[in-house]
Design goal:
Oligomer: single chain
CATH architecture of the largest domain: 2-Layer Sandwich
Strand content: 25-35%
Structural class: alpha/beta
Number of strands: 11
Helix content: 25-40%
Largest sheet: 6 strands, mixed
Radius of gyration: 20 Å
CATH superfamily of the largest domain: Dihydrodipicolinate Reductase, domain 2
Mean pLDDT: 86
Low-confidence stretches: none
Amino acid sequence: MVAVCDPVREHADAYADSLGVPAYYSISELVRARPMEAALVVAPAAAHYAVSYYLSSHGIHNVVETPLAVTLAQAQEMARMARQNDVVMRVGEQFFRLPFPRLAQRAAATGYLGPINRVICAYDHAGSHNNSCWIHFFRAYPIAFQAMDQNIPEDSVAYRFRDIERFRSHFYTFPGNLFAADFFSDVKGLLGRYPRPGYTQIEGERGAIAWRAASRWN
């Protein structure tokens, strides 16, 4: 990290001081000084389009936190501006690039497990992150989706992050009777109980590959 940019001066100054780097208070000021090779866009989602578009228009590579933009038209314009200026622009948290999904992709390609038709994922990220992972894995978009969301009172541990645990489950059906399921609860904190990034199983007709996290992300 070589610089911090935030229009809220106290936020910019505090984070910059912790990193020992200069603080900037506007994107135009940062781009004029240009101390960086690339930028991480972690602004509120509504600002992603404007910040990324501006960076790309000045030839600065950028990684944008999720969601990429709030409309499809904005995302398309961001991609167009990046291509026009030979800029690498990516959205953050591309889970299909993590080691286990990449291993599963290679195993699936060999045919060793036979056709793979089911993915079960517990206490990993979920929602748009895992959804994009399974879209990439199955090379298709879901044709059906079901979800369950339940809030459960939680008071069993003294070091909990919150007093309500939100349990969620998502079920995706893909063409060809392919299926993926996500189960998770308060995925960021998990109330200190579960290892991250969780448990995932890729199931084929002749066997399965399972991933189990070794440690907590706390």
